[in-house]
Amino acid sequence: MTETTLTEQHRELLDQVLDKWSLQILEALCGSPLRFNELRRAIPLVTQKSLTAALRRLERNGMVERVVTGTRPVAVEYRITPLGDSLQDLIDALLHWTTETLPAVERARASFDDA
Amino acid sequence: MTETTLTEQHRELLDQVLDKWSLQILEALCGSPLRFNELRRAIPLVTQKSLTAALRRLERNGMVERVVTGTRPVAVEYRITPLGDSLQDLIDALLHWTTETLPAVERARASFDDA
């Protein structure tokens, strides 16, 4: 086990980047930059309000950046930053761990509930 | 980016094992099995009720097991299971990522707040 212990700062940052919508936004953006409505289509269950708040949090934490495109009319795109990208591998590892572990977890739950 | 996408099942399991107390319990148990009160001393801010609920969740998910010791008087110890151990590397990686990233996140927050 590493010497790193879970400080309040760790906790706060993890809560802000591992929350439900942030994970899905980072996942959607890792393919390519997207506009707000493209993100809404990529994450059907998210409300406009939740998406706005999560994007703002990710932007404030330096994981995502807002870029005004040079198109006519002007538009705003959201892009994942190198900082956001550095989280990507962890998110992949978490999702992979969850996929691998779910069958064993479900067996554990079944025997716990039957006990 | 892996083909694994974030299903509701993924989400539920991640929420249950990455929550505040579960992370700290798994961290405390990775050194050695502990009794309830030893866990409470290892995690000063947790209440009895929160610790009981988190242990129950971890046990139900197969991450921790309750073992009745052969001592006189009998006592109960909590041990991390191989399933719980498999999460340990990810928790280490998350904590390491957070430690490495916090300075850049704080710079991003400062410039976002000043903008």
UniProtKB/TrEMBL annotation, chains A, B:
Keywords: DNA-binding, Transcription, Transcription regulation. Signal peptide: none annotated. It holds the Pfam family HxlR. Residues 7-106 form the HTH hxlR-type domain. This is Helix-turn-helix transcriptional regulator. CDD domains: HTH_ARSR. It comes from the Bacteria. The keyword Transcription regulation applies.
